[in-house]
Design goal:
The chain is built from no helices and 11 strands. By secondary structure, the protein is mainly β.
Length: 122
């Protein structure tokens, strides 16, 4: 699976941003998808995930209510809508696919994209 994340950029605190991930290389509808992020000097952390068929969603507790993950299997895309952004949301956001176990906090994923930078200014 090839994953291409996009949509990052510079946004002011309180603003919103929508990240997009385009997938190719296999049947997207069979892939559980997720977003993770890594801030400068910090470990990578789980943001959100969505299951392949039912669309069940999983969110990091710290971000619940501010992020929404969605997918369109016909378009082979998954999105991460982020709102009320804070400077501490500044990070590289990665799209990932096919974790061995899909759950909140899943950090092991089979496929990774290159990431897109999100910078939130105060």
């Amino acid at each position: 699976v090839q994953l291409q994340a996009s949509g990052g950029g510079l946004v002011q605190a309180g603003g919103s941003l929508r990240l997009s991930c385009a997938a190719s290389g296999r049947t997207f509808s069979r892939s559980d998808m997720g977003w993770l992020r890594q801030a400068p000097g910090k470990e990578r952390e789980f943001v959100a995930a969505i299951s392949s068929r039912s669309g069940t969603t999983y969110y990091a507790d710290s971000l619940k209510g501010r992020v929404t993950i969605s997918r369109d299997n016909a378009k082979n895309r998954v999105w991460l809508q982020m709102s009320s952004l804070k400077p501490e949301d500044t990070a590289v956001y990665y799209c990932a696919a096919d974790p061995p176990i899909l759950r909140v906090g899943a950090m092991t994923w089979t496929y990774w994209g290159h990431g897109t930078q999100v910078t939130v200014s105060s």
